[in-house]
Amino acid sequence: MTSPTGRPGGGPPSAVRALRVAALVLILVAVVHTLRAGFAEPGHALAFGALVAGGELARRGALPGEREPAPLGAAGALAYALLGRSAGEPTGQGVLQVITVVTAAQLLAAVPHLKRVAKVLSRHALVRGGGPDADGAARRILTVAFAAVCFQPLRIAEQSTGALGEGPAYAAFLVGLLGLTALCDAVLAASVLAARTRYPFGSHLRDELCGLPGIGSAVCATGAVMALGVAVAGLWALPVLCVPLLLTQVSFRRYAAVRETYRQTIASLARSTEIAGYTPPGHARRVAELSTAVGRELGLAGRELTVLEYAALMHDIGQLSLVDPLADGATARLPAAEQRRIALLGGAVVRQTGVDAKVAVVVETQADPYREQPLTARIVRAVNAYEDLCGEAVGGALGALEQLRIGTGHDYQPQVVEALAGVLARGGPSRVRTG
Fold first, then answer.
1. For residue 2, which phi and psi values (nearest 5 degrees)?
2. Which candidate in 38, 62, 109, 273 could, as Cys together with 56 as Cys, close a disulfide (CB 3.0–4.6 Å)?
3. Distance between CA 173 and CA 169 in Å, rounded?
């Protein structure tokens, strides 16, 4: 039996299982300790718990590809982990109480979805296959625990000297701590994705780090400002400081909607060759998915993957200039000059659509010798040739790969062909976010 991730069996990869087990153990220890010792400042625990729960509820309506669908919940949890004073008075919540409050808030937010509650409450969900929600909850717990543990030196300083810290030194400490916390979360996210998709860890880590200047920086900054605001003004600062992040969330969600519409428009334009009978149905989509998988295998991330996906979708648009369609739309067997002419015409069409000029460059150069191409064009050319050759009597996938290997002296980069072979050996592309 093969799992959706392409691994034997139906359970999650070992790295994902380890993440869930670590979070589960931490939650159990925290809850037992907090129930025995009692809550310090229960009013603060209730206020921050409500903030985190409300932020988690705001994830409803999130679009595919959103890097942080619950930024307010993440910022509230981070603020509680970094809270050392409230209205000038020291607070006494420890690391384990922070974990307990954040866990309770996430469970409370799941109440409207009773099936999800059952999964989160079940050890089977946290250890054997609770899906992305369980992974996200585990990541949140471990990241908040990391921030709270790192903040303990300041809490100890407060207890021993009565001064939590002021001025540039305190600001530098918070900035450094926020940076480490963001890096910790990025490493955890990349580890889960690398285990599930089996693409290189470095590619996913680069992708996560590229996303930090966006919503990630807003979450970190808001969490720190919330902690500082409560330290001066008390809990009254929380509702005021929530507004900017809520507006930011709305803006990012609208941006994600526009981006998804933009991608769908490009996919629809790419289908024009299929509708006109120049290429087989689904050809552009298959080339785009496989090209993206090979790109990840070779370490591409972020904007590079987006350009690669768009170029792969539109790589055959130049065939609309042909008087008669090619058999199965296969350009791999055409003379080099004809391939370049079709590619240049395709690039000209892409430039007229207003798509990123880098996409047009990939389309224009996809038929050039690989030493003269950018890496993205090398990937599109190899994957498109593989797709074309699979439709011919060349011995199926293995025969197509063998033909590509024969052409590595001039037409195809050897590393790209081997990356393609690696992706195919694992069962084909896995769908993961590219933005």
1. -115, 135
2. 109
3. 6
Give the count of beta carbons closer than 10 Å to the beta carbon of residue 176. 11
Structure tokens belonging to residue 115: 């099936």
Of residues 384, 269, 283, the one with CA closest to residue 334? 384
Q: Is the distance from CB of 216 to CB of 67 less than 8 angstroms? A: yes
Owner of token pair 């000038």: 88
Rounded to whole angstroms, how far apart are CA atoms 348 and 199?
Answer: 33
Number of Cβ atoms within 10 Å of the Cβ of 361: 19
Integer CA distances (angstroms), 57 to 62, 70, 247, 379, in order: 10, 8, 16, 41
C-alpha closest to that of 194 among 206, 183, 204: 204
How many Cβ atoms are within 10 Å of 206's Cβ, its own excluded? 19
**Total Cβ atoms within 10 A of residue 336:** 12
Higher pLDDT, residue 359 or 249: 359
Cα gap 316→278, rounded to integer Å: 9
88 contacts 12 by C-beta, under 8 angstroms: no
Helix (H) or strand (E) holding 90: strand 89-90
Alpha-carbon span 188 to 97, nearest angstrom: 22
Beta bridge partners of 86: 89
Residues present in the chain in total? 435
Task: Give the type of residue at 205.
Answer: L
Give every CB contact of residue 409 below 8 A, 6+ residues apart in sequence: none
One-character DSSP codes across 111-164: TTSHHHHHHHHSHHIIIII--HHHHHHHHHHHHHHHHHHHHHHHHHHHHHHS--
CA distance 120 to 169: 40
pTM attached to this predicted model: 0.73
405: pLDDT strictly greater than 90: no
Find the mean pLDDT for residues 333-338: 77
Q: Is 427 within 8 Å of 2 (Cβ atoms)? A: yes
**Could you tell me if 137 and 74 are in contact, meaning their C-beta atoms sit under 8 angstroms apart?**
no
The strand ranges marked E within 170-209 are none
Distance CA 29, CA 386 (A): 53
Enumerate residues 6+ apart whose C-beta is below 8 A from 12: 5, 20, 128, 129, 195, 196
Report the alpha-carbon distance of residue 341 to residue 331 in Å, rounded.
Answer: 11
CB 73 within 8 A of CB 109: yes
The pLDDT of 208-228, averaged and rounded, is: 83
Beta-bridge partner residues of 110 = none
| More confident position, 191 or 128 | 191
Kindly state the average pLDDT of the residues 180-199: 85
